[in-house]
């Protein structure tokens, strides 16, 4: 099961966070700081899977952004690694070459995309067309 998903830049600033289990706000800040510090400190040659406290972390870097996913022990790391790549491909398709600014200024749309892909910590959709359909419908309604 997916416990959380974070999107952070190279400076360690969180650009997106989504939790699929209850975590107190005070603990979120320290958890995010520890997770980000641990992932940013790793070299590119090192594995993208890290054991961290009660979680396994799967992270992937795209340009200046890191996407970090905290999962349970019994979740498949490679499927989550591919999910992260699929998430970025969907963002690229919608924003046509997504950037950190796209995410910052369209956070609600990024959350819609993420919610179409993950529900209650489980992957529910990976088809790019079906993931983007509700968002494109909303865009079409906003235009008219």
TrEMBL record:
This protein's UniProt keywords: Membrane, Protein transport, Transport
CC terms in the record's Gene Ontology section: cytoplasm; endomembrane system
AP complex mu/sigma subunit domain: residues covered: 1-141
UniProt-listed GO biological process terms: protein transport
Pfam families: Clat_adaptor_s
Keyword Transport tagged: yes
Record has Secreted as a keyword: no
Compartments in which it is found: Endomembrane system
Primary location class: membrane
Family membership: Belongs to the adaptor complexes small subunit family.
Role of this protein: Component of the adaptor protein complex 4 (AP-4). Adaptor protein complexes are vesicle coat components involved both in vesicle formation and cargo selection. They control the vesicular transport of proteins in different trafficking pathways. AP-4 forms a non clathrin-associated coat on vesicles departing the trans-Golgi network (TGN) and may be involved in the targeting of proteins from the trans-Golgi network (TGN) to the endosomal-lysosomal system.
Subunit field text: Adaptor protein complex 4 (AP-4) is a heterotetramer composed of two large adaptins (epsilon-type subunit AP4E1 and beta-type subunit AP4B1), a medium adaptin (mu-type subunit AP4M1) and a small adaptin (sigma-type AP4S1).
Protein name (Swiss-Prot/TrEMBL): AP complex subunit sigma
Source organism of the structure: Cyprinus carpio (Common carp)
